[in-house]
Amino acid sequence: MATPRTTPSRPDALTLEVVELIGSVVARYHEEYEEAAAGHALTGAQARLLSLLCLEPLPMRKLAQRLKCEPSNVTGIVDRLESRGLVERRPDPADRRVKLAAATPEGRRVARSLQDSLRFAREPLAGLSEEERVALRDALRRMLSAD
User: Fold this and answer.
1) How many angstroms separate the CA atoms of 93 and 114, rounded?
2) Overall fold of domain 25-118
3) How far is CA 98 from CA 61, 78, 89, 92, in A?
4) Transcription regulation: is it a keyword of this entry (predicted)?
5) CA end-to-end distance (rounded Å), the chain
6) Are 114 and 40 in contact (CB under 8 A)?
7) pLDDT tens, residue by residue, 14-43
8) Which of 42, 68, 89, 99 has its Cβ near the most Cβ atoms within 10 Å?
9) How far is it, in rounded angstroms, from Cα 110 to Cα 14?
């Protein structure tokens, strides 16, 4: 039988420093992501939605869940991306009543260009050895799976 983890009442100095550094990394990443999106005349939300659709076509409800927003917001974002030819709506082959949003070839090109312009994490990571990158990746995965 597993025993519940106990959380110390006051984090140690190292934990506080790591949390602060993670916050700084996240803030810098979001700042660069917003700048890269703006370089393609996209908002950050539009760029994130387009990136998700490059992985697979998704129904609006699933997009809303992944973006952690209301389905009505997703509809507006998809409308704007569709008007630019970056996204299209198509029937779901499994359920013709459901519409899927999918990236168009132009949408995939824009998303790829946006990803290529994100240098913040790529350049510092290139300075780490493969062993260091693997250790960092594994530590981040463990942190994310601890929920």
Assistant:
1) 30
2) Arc Repressor Mutant, subunit A (1.10.10)
3) 10, 15, 10, 6
4) yes
5) 19
6) yes
7) 999 999 999 998 898 889 899 999 999 999
8) 42
9) 40
